[in-house]
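Treating backbone geometry as a discrete language has practical consequences that deserve illustration. The sequence in question and its structure tokens are set out directly beneath this paragraph.
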Amino acid sequence: MRLLIAEDDSRLLTQLDALLQQNGYSVDLADNGNNALYQLQEYNYDLAVIDIGLPGIDGFDVIRKARQNDVRTPVLILTARDRWQEKVEGLDAGADDYLTKPFHNEELLARVKALIRRASGQANPSIQFGPVCLDTVAEEITLNDVRLDLTAYEYKVMEYLMLNPQKIVSKTELTEHIYDQDFDLDSNVIEVFVGRLRKKLDPDGTLKPIETLRGRGYRLNREL
């Protein structure tokens, strides 16, 4: 999953970057409102974490302008202000949730996961697709209640497909959402991951869980 973090406190920005990368997210950074707005409008993120007190354009205006330009990325606002009016203003601007500083890392991670699930129409932390179950809390996938031994990137590929079950997902889109920006988009590594997933999910070749649509990308088999 690819996230944007907009925060002008360089120490906190570094901490958030490390925390989220350690938890398997691909992270882009912005330290002012102008950059945050540009990145939101230019790139497709699974979630944006935006501090209200950004220099240049503040967080409220970043969110308002992004929503006016039809940016639908879920937004979690960070604020050091504990006044309820400012939380309401953030939500009215188009944010989806808020977190007041200081916060516990575990709460931030839980809110990030919940917002990404909701944006995909999934309220339940466990997502079932036929005999395949994705547990977004434990970050594991089971097949007929048996836990699969997946690498971190195999899990990320399957997680993205299961959070977008009706969508045809291109190799480029998958790469952008599981790797940092400088990764080689022409690499065949996604094909390798999908091939491994097919073997682990369908060793007998009967389930056919991941469809390939030639020239378009991948999609979960809707007949699972």
Notes: The chain has two domains: 2-119, 126-220.
